[in-house]
């Protein structure tokens, strides 16, 4: 019987580059800040917090998200072709619809969190698999 599991050597992964240790360590801190901002936004949307009170968390989440994309791209040079890159693109596209679907913002944020949680914790051979 053939083994249905894909071996990491059988998968076409995106090119990687060197990333200094300080950048890797820094990205862990930035990721934690990103989670604080995004978590505050999720709670704000779910519990109907006034939008003006959520604005600082929007900026924290946006700024930290941009830094995270930069640190990931520093290592994964083909991020835009990988599952991880496309999960980020899908999350951004969903977030851009929030002003259009304010009544469903909490649900959309939950979907974004699901995509983020799954995309970030997939095994490497799936997360960095090339899509094209």
Explain this structure.
There is one protein chain. α1 packs antiparallel against α2, α1 packs antiparallel against α4 and α3 runs antiparallel to α4. The radius of gyration is 17 Å and the shape is globular. The mean pLDDT is about 90. About 65% of the residues lie in helices and about 0% in strands. It is mainly alpha-helical and about 130 residues long.
Task: Write a concise synopsis of the structure shown.
By secondary structure, the protein is mostly helical. It is 65% helix and 0% strand.
- SS-based class: mainly alpha
Low-confidence stretches: none
Mean pLDDT: 90
Rg, rounded, reads: 17 Å
Number of strands: 0
Estimate the helix proportion, in percent.
55-70%
Per DSSP, what share of the residues sits in E-state strands of 2 or more residues? under 5%
Largest sheet: none
* Element string (H = helix, E = strand): HHHHH
Q: What is the overall shape?
A: globular
Number of helical segments with 4 or more residues: 5
How far the N terminus sits from the C terminus, by CA atoms, comes to: 30 Å
List keywords for this structure.
65% helix; 132 residues; mainly alpha; single chain
Topology:
Layout: H1 21-46, H2 51-75, H3 83-96, H4 105-121, H5 124-127
Helix pairs in contact: 1-2, 1-4, 3-4
């Amino acid at each position: 019987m053939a083994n249905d599991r894909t071996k990491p050597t059988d998968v076409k992964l995106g090119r990687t580059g060197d990333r200094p240790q300080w950048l890797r360590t820094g990205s862990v801190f930035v990721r934690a800040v990103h989670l604080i901002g995004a978590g505050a936004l999720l709670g704000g949307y779910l519990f109907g917090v006034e939008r003006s009170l959520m604005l600082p968390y929007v900026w924290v989440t946006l700024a930290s998200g941009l830094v995270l994309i930069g640190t990931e791209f520093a290592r994964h040079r083909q991020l835009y072709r990988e599952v991880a890159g496309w999960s980020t693109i899908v999350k951004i596209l969903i977030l851009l619809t929030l002003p259009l679907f304010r009544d469903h913002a909490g649900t959309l944020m939950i979907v974004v969190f699901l995509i983020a949680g799954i995309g970030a914790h997939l095994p490497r051979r799936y997360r960095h698999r090339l899509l094209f």
